[in-house]
Specification:
Largest sheet: 2 strands, antiparallel
Helix content: 55-70%
Strand order of the largest sheet: 1-2
Distance between the termini: 18 Å
Structural class: mainly alpha
Radius of gyration: 18 Å
Shape: elongated
Length: about 190
């Protein structure tokens, strides 16, 4: 699992370098264009790597859960955009609420977290947070748009995703006894 985490982190780092076409130190300077480019790249990379995880683990059940959460997230996000019709801070259109980039990014992070565990999802949560940040900094959304996007995306995965088959070991403690509880999902 640690190797998988390293691979995901490598792909996220690689996407930063490739998409900005600048040195690593320039990526985090206050250039709004770079922030938006990196955010857009992560918006694509995060769901692709989460989906790839279902192949890495040979997890057809997880793949089906991923499809369901992506579909639900898309329907709710697009439905809200077309119903609420909130204008973007930059005035480009009236489809600001909720942020689709953020909802997709957090849908992927929560899917990985709930299906395969928190450690594997850490880079995705960092990436999804950066996507949300980049959407506000690029003046495409305000904070309420990205918070709503994170909520819609996260809940869509949380609802459809179950823990991957594994053994869980938890401590058990009461006032009179202590021990461990072992469980297995399959």
């Amino acid at each position: 699992m640690l190797n998988t985490l390293k691979q995901v982190f490598f792909f996220i780092t690689l996407s930063f370098a490739i998409t900005t076409n600048t040195s690593a130190s320039d990526t985090f300077k206050s250039n709004d264009s770079n922030k938006e480019i990196v955010g857009d790249a992560l918006y694509i990379l995060l769901p692709v790597t989460a989906y790839a995880g279902t192949f890495y683990f040979d997890d057809t059940k997880g793949r089906t859960q991923f499809y369901k959460s992506v579909f639900t997230n898309s329907v709710i996000t697009l439905g809200l955009k077309n119903t609420v019709k909130k204008e973007r801070p930059n005035g480009e259109d009236n489809k600001a609420f909720p942020s689709g980039h953020t909802s997709t990014s957090f849908q992927s992070a929560v899917f990985l977290h709930k299906r395969y565990g928190f450690k594997l999802a850490i880079p995705h949560y960092l990436g999804a947070s950066y996507v949300a940040y980049s959407r506000v900094e690029s003046n495409n959304h305000d904070t309420s748009d990205v918070l709503a996007g994170a909520l819609v995306g996260g809940l869509s995965s949380y609802y459809f995703t179950t823990k991957y088959k594994s053994i869980t070991i938890n401590p058990s403690l009461s006032s009179e006894t202590f021990g461990i509880t072992v469980g297995m999902n399959w």
